[in-house]
Amino acid sequence: MFSKACEYGIKATIFIAIKSYEGVRVSPKEIAKEIDSPEAFTAKILQALVRHDVISSLKGAYGGFEIAKDRIPLVKLADIVNAIDGDAIYNGCGLGLHKCSETHPCPVHDKFKAIREGLKDMLERTSLEELALDIKSGASFLKV
Amino acid sequence: MFSKACEYGIKATIFIAIKSYEGVRVSPKEIAKEIDSPEAFTAKILQALVRHDVISSLKGAYGGFEIAKDRIPLVKLADIVNAIDGDAIYNGCGLGLHKCSETHPCPVHDKFKAIREGLKDMLERTSLEELALDIKSGASFLKV
DNA sequence: TTTAATTCGGATATTTTTATCCTTTTTATT
DNA sequence: AATAAAAAGGATAAAAATATCCGAATTAAA
After folding, report:
1. Which residue of B has its CA nearest to A135?
2. Of A20, A38, A122, B133, which alpha carbon lies 20 to 30 A from B126's?
3. Structural domains of chain B ordered from first start
4. Cα–Cα distance, A95 to A100 (Å, whole number)
5. What is the pLDDT of residues B47-82, one digit of tens each?
6. Test mutation, B11, B140, B142, B143, chain A, max A CBs within 10 A
7. Does A7 contact B95 at a Cβ distance shorter than 8 Å?
8. Average pLDDT of the segment spanning A15-29
9. Which stretches of A61-127 are assigned E, i.e. beta strand?
């Protein structure tokens, strides 16, 4: 459903949020260990998330990745997905037609529309905050 | 959402169904032209569909691909997707955890479950017959 | 039985995605 | 100002997905 890059990006952002609640910045090494991902590749994804203002970073000694506490409830899953995979998931045609529309629909246009909208809705409604709190409470897990 | 291979497979199967209603077999060349796909790659996908008994083929002169008329209403979108992309869409974890389950869920486990089940349901309910009839009636399109 | 038309299957090429490595830039501390 | 720690960014490598090519096997018809 999502690319590997996006999977890592979501898990990394959740971990950064948890650490940011504690007021500590984290390194790609620490993140990769926690979410069980390749470190260098994860670092690249973090760069993309910074560029898209999902998270922020501080270079140099005592630097690392963080996210402002007051932004955590405002960041939605959709923001993370969008920063990494773009909006193809919502907007692209299910069968790859270049000009798929109501007036020139692909064979699965309507059937997919419902699924897509459900997905879009879920991504836009789900906040980083609730995902992070579930991890903190032990209700969900970032690896294995 | 789906792989290119799967997109081609779905469109190819629909076209084969339409031609099979007319009692004529079709070649990869004709199919590729009709669905706007790379011919040789499409041929490989057709082989996979034959191996999984979604469609059937006849080698040699006057051969080609076809699907028995009485099977058209029985074949579901899910059969085509399964033959090409497997069942990762329904069963894999949304965030790539190896052991994602009710008792050890990833952060988006429940939210994805709903989407997944909607998708699965749709794929299992949608028949090749209705897709083919929509193309025949001009209600939907296979290319552009 | 020969021929022509066709799918099948293996080998290979290209492109995209995933992953790694190394140098440069930035920054807090000493 | 010097130093050490860290992200940024570019170059490269490996793996997977997409795509092409060609010879072998099969088949219907002449």
Report:
1. B107
2. A122
3. 4-136 (1.10.10.10)
4. 9
5. 999 999 999 999 999 999 999 999 999 999 999 999
6. B140
7. yes
8. 98
9. 64-66
